[in-house]
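Predicting holo structure, zinc ion bound.
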Amino acid sequence: MADALGSIETAWILQGLWGLVSIFAVEMVRDSYHVASHLWSPLMRLHNWHHKAYRKDFTPVSTELYQKAQLYNDVPESLVMMAVMAAVAVLTPLWGFWLGFLYGAGFLGAALLRSQGLLHSTDLTHEPGPLTTLPGLWLVNRTYHWRHHFDETTAYYAGYFTISDKIMGSALSLKGKTVAVTGASGTLGRALIKRLAAQGAKPIALSRSADAVIEGAVQVVPWRSGEEQALKDLLSRVNILVINHGVNVHGQRSADAIAASLETNALSAWRLMELFLDTVDNRLGRATKELWVNTSEAEVNPAFSPLYETSKRLLGDLITLRRQDAPCVIRKLVLGPFKSNLNPIGVMSADWVAGAIVGLVKRDIRNVIVTINPLTYILFPIKETLQGLYFKLFSKRQ
Ligand SMILES: [Zn+2]
Ligand SMILES: [Zn+2]
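Done. Tokens:
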């Protein structure tokens, strides 16, 4: 008897777990249906109602359009979610999947009520008003979804879990983005600009030499570290700033070497970062702007160049501090040794590193680690998490 009860309990727990799996699965069905709605014209016709229903601040264009969007987009979408879950529940047979079916039914009910004007509250990702948070990293929020409507409709498909976009590489679209890159005539700068251009971005090369020929750049702007203020106007029209300039004085430790390392690797980068963050406006900036900073794996590992490490660690720490309440996403590029003018003995090719950076940012990875040193993959996340926590506890905004 006790045994029989025990096995019934186990069966319930097991089906409960399958129920949780079904919630995740039904969201993946929603995302797949959404992708199909952008590829296959019969579904596209229905889905277009959803895209036509909202203004840029997510207020409905009209009650009529909003109600039609619910009827022609949300109703069939939830029916598909329910049908797939019911099919899995019947065919497997894992009755826990009926939870996914009920979850879909909840969306169907809400869509039907909204389409008839009987339910006025909208779902969380389409609430009107300014975008007050950064795009969600694991869960879709308004800022995340806003980009699907108004930044790039062939990306940001996810409805609730961002994992589907991470898998597809559509968690960040570079298409049409104006991306300014410092250190543009360096080995990585050149490789990155080429890769960004291949993604449909419009790279602006910031380089010491005005006549540098940089493949893929739509514009070469002469600039050297120390002249940050001169970039103010340019930065206001830039979507993504990539701070990538730096010096490596290798084994030197003279006063001049210290000054040059601190000035170029840390202070100039920090001034540029503040100047850029100042251009992020409160209305849409959180969705349309990003800062990427090449801090290098010297943040946590030796680079056999003490002043390079010291200055890059200072920059890395300042970014961790600034990340606590930054107005836009700040990504760190934590790169291992690649072959360049600064480091002729690097093992990875700059082009490969640039390709990996692009692949990872498109999956919304915010600490972009590209190295052959396995220790960095362990040490960096620990350092970043603990230091971030420490900075949060022992510093405040004002
Ligand atoms: Zn939407
Ligand atoms: Zn869509």
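Residues 34, 38, 47, 51, 148, 153 surround zinc ion (ligand 2) (CB under 6 Å).
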